[in-house]
Amino acid sequence: MTHTTAPTWLRIVGFVFAVLAFAVSSSLFLAPEQVLENTDLKANGVHYLIQMWAARQFALGCTFAFASMKKQTPLISLAFVFFLVMNIADFLIGISQKDNGLIIGSLVMCVIAGIILLLANKERTKPTGT
C-alpha cells in the first residue's frame, strides 16, 4: 500500500511556494516598475505581457495552495510537475534570449523541483507502517 496523505514537510513547502508565487503576482500587478527596472513600461503591449506573467504566477500560487490544502502527495507532486515544466520552458527562453539570470534561476528551480518530486515520490511509495 502507498501513502497518499502528504507529509507535513511537503505541505509546508507547497504553501511556501504558493506564498512566493502570490508575492510575485502581486508585485507584477501592483508595482511592475519595481520588478522590471530595465523595461520600458510605456512600450506598446508591455503591460499586457506583465499581466499575463502575473496571471501565470497567480495560477501557480493557486495550484500550490489548493494541492497543499488537500494534503495529498500526488496532488502536490502534480503542482511541482507543473512548476518543473514551467521552469524548463523558462530555461529554454533564457537560452534563446541569452539571459544568464533567467538561465541560472530557472535551472536552480528545476533542480529544487526535481529534488522535491524525488523526495515526495519516495515518501509516497513507502510501505505502510514505516
Briefly, what is this?
The chain is an all-alpha fold and 130 residues long. The chain is built from five helices and no strands.
Strand segment tally:
0
State the order of secondary-structure elements, H for helix, E for strand: HHHHH
Number of helices: 5
The helix fraction, in percent, is: over 70%
Radius of gyration: 17 Å
Helix/strand-derived class? mainly alpha
* Shape label: elongated
- Parts with pLDDT < 50 across at least 5 consecutive residues: none
Averaging pLDDT over every residue, what do you get? 92
Strand content: under 5%
Largest β sheet strand count, sense and barrel closure: none
End-to-end C-alpha gap = 11 Å
Could you characterize the architecture of this molecule?
Helix 1 runs antiparallel to helix 3, helix 3 (46-70) runs antiparallel to helix 4 (73-97) and helix 4 (73-97) packs antiparallel against helix 5 (100-124). The relative contact order is 0.16. The chain has 5 helices and no strands. The model has no long low-confidence stretch (mean pLDDT 92). It is mainly α. The protein is 78% helix and 0% strand. The chain has helices at 8-30, 32-35, 46-70, 73-97, 100-124.
